[in-house]
Structures are given as C-alpha cells and as structure tokens.
Amino acid sequence: MHQPIKQHLIDPEICIRCHTCEEACQIGAITHNDDNVVVDASKCNFCMDCIAPCPTGSIDNWRVVTEAYSVDEQLEWMELPEQEEIAAPDEGAEPDSDIARLLAEAHEGAGGQVRAPASAATPSVQLFTRDAPAMARVQGNYRLTAEGTDNDVRHIILDMGATAFPVLEGQSIGITPPDETVPRLYSISSPRDGERPGTNNLSLTVKREPGGKASNYLCDLEKGAEVAVTGPFGSTFLMPEDRAAKLLMICTGTGSAPFRAFTMRHQRSQKNNPGKLMLFFGARSTDQLPYFGPLQKIPAEVMQSHLVFSRETGAAKEYVQDRMRAEAGPIAALLSEEVTHIFICGLKAMEAGVDAAFDQIAVEHGLDWAALKDRMRDGGRYHVETY
After folding, report:
1. Beta bridge partners of 11
2. Rounded to a whole number, what is the largest CA-CA distance in the chain?
3. From CA 183, how far away is CA 216, in angstroms rounded?
4. Among 68, 381, 352, 29, which residue's Cα sits nearest to residue 238?
5. What is the pLDDT of residues 289-338, one digit of tens each?
6. Is 161 left (phi over 0), alpha (psi -120 to 50) or beta?
7. I need a surface site. Which of 24, 25, 207, 223 has the fewest CB within 10 A?
8. pLDDT over 90, % of the chain
9. Are 106 and 46 in contact (CB under 8 A)?
10. Residue 137 φ then ψ, to 5°
C-alpha cells in the first residue's frame, strides 16, 4: 500500500478558466486544456502562491490519496471526486496520526492560508454559469470621475428582475464580452439588499481600459441593455457580521468597490454601532477618485476616511502607505485588537508598499508584523485582492 499523500486539486464545477492560478505558479505545476485547469501532483510543492489570486475559491481543494490523480485524469473531470477512505497500512486499523493530520489539512483547505471571517454569512457561489447565465438589465450607467480626465470610471447598476441572485459584500460577478468565452470578474459595489434596501439589483465599479474588451463593453452599455451574468464568485473576501468587528480597509481606484458595499451594509445593519470603520483610499486627484462626493458625506463617527492623492494640484505627492505611516498610532491600536479585520483591494503595485508600512508601524509599536499577519490570516481577518 502506498503512503498516503495530500494532493492539491481544482474544482472544475467552480473554476471559470481565468488562468490566474497558472500565471501565479512559478514552477509550472498548473496546466490546462480546453475543458479544465489542473495541478500536476509531481510538480506541486504546496507553496500556496496560486491560492490568493483565484477569484472563485476553486483552487482551494485538497484530497488525501494513496495514489495521486494524474493530469490526464483531472483534465477529463466534470466534478471533484469524493475523499476516499484512507486506512492505516495495517488494514482495518484506525488511521495513524500522520494520516489524520493530512485529512484534517485537506478538510481545512490551504492550511488556513485563505479563510473567510468566522462570522461572515455563508456565500452562494456560481449559481449561474457560462452555459446558463442570469440575464440582467442595465438600470443605470453613470460616470464617477470628471469629464475630460483620462480616467473614465463608471458606476453601473444591473437590475436582476425576477431572478434570485443572492450576493454578499466582497463577492464578484462574471461578465463575458461579446465574441469572448472567458468571463471577466468585477467586484460588486452594492450591499446584499441592493442599491436601495429591498431592491433586486447590484452595482459594479468599472474603469475603462484602453483596448479592454470587457471594460469598454460595460462602460458603453446603455440603459435597458441586457447583460449575461455569471456567478456569484468569492467565498473569503467577505464582510464579518460580528458587531464588535473593526474594519481597516485600504484601496486604490476601482478597488473601492467592495468597500462601498461594506460601508453601505454597515450603515444599514448597524446604525447604532458607529466607529468601526477606517478607510485609506488612494487616487491621482480628487476628480479621479470614484465616489469622492459620497465619501465626503459619511460622518466621521461612522468611518474615518483618509483620501490620499498622488497628483493633486498644489499638494505634495502622497500614497496610501504614506498616510498609513502618518496614522501609525490608530493603526497600531487596531493591530493590537483581536476584532480587527484588514482588507486590501486595488492595484497589485500597492501591495508591497502597504505591507512595508504595516511592518514599520508594527516595529515602532513593539509588534511582530509577520507573525501577526499570519495569525490574522489563519483567523480569517486578513484579506488581499489585488490585480
């Protein structure tokens, strides 16, 4: 009998074939054909680099096996196999400690690398697929940034009509542009009960990218147009339901989308529970910062907003990590609390600077940022979505 091993697998029923995991894998352990994206067990070293970029959670699947599933087998799968019964080498005996550990790790996914907040509501995932999408109708398409700037960011409202499309703050939906087969994912920028309470709609924050088929398709949609929607996607970047939770949110550009949803949800569900939100939001200038006007209207007792600009006329260049260092005291206080959740969303280029700022703040206040970050991640309190 072979010694049992833990094998990393991808769920073909949830995967949208966006290939972000394959791009993230530095050792060539992930491959694909026209049907599936799979992990080669002979190459995978469990580095976990592919886990965080996956927008659907399909990458975070594990099985304990006596013989690894081959690449050819996986490429033919329509669904994941069930966990096989694993006995100790002595047939009929209880699994030994190593096997029990492997089974526990497989049940927990990537060893706690990516987890939803413990108090988050249970998300619905991939109710609608490329072959059977939900049809939405454009209810509104509004420019958020000033006319005349080269930063065209849109607030697009999609009416789901009579279709039940349950979403949570932090999830995404898929939109497939015409003549394309792979959907592009966009974070939902409205709370679970719609733009207005009790409405069956959702909103997106979309930046027009030069040459971007999906972004130009969405930004050009007119009111009344029909759009095929897949999803929802995402099972970890979710808002905690714990009323004691404190949220530290850091974003740039359209990375503000989930935080708009978080903030609106907090205001609706916890009206008498202010002072739990802190936001650092970076943009080039005030006229290029999405939702600048509405953010200005949120009372300070509800959310501490730090709007940071790198190209504002008449002002010194500043990035989110610079403002974080300037607010080191309040941030250190949050880092010391077990109820604090950190969410980072936006351009990948911001990630290193933000992490360095956290490290510096932690050192100045007697904290070990590396250990603290690992502990927060394992507890479902540290989340990063960058692109």
Report:
1. none
2. 76
3. 14
4. 381
5. 999 999 988 999 899 999 999 999 999 999 999 999 999 999 999 999 99
6. left
7. 223
8. 65
9. no
10. -120, 135
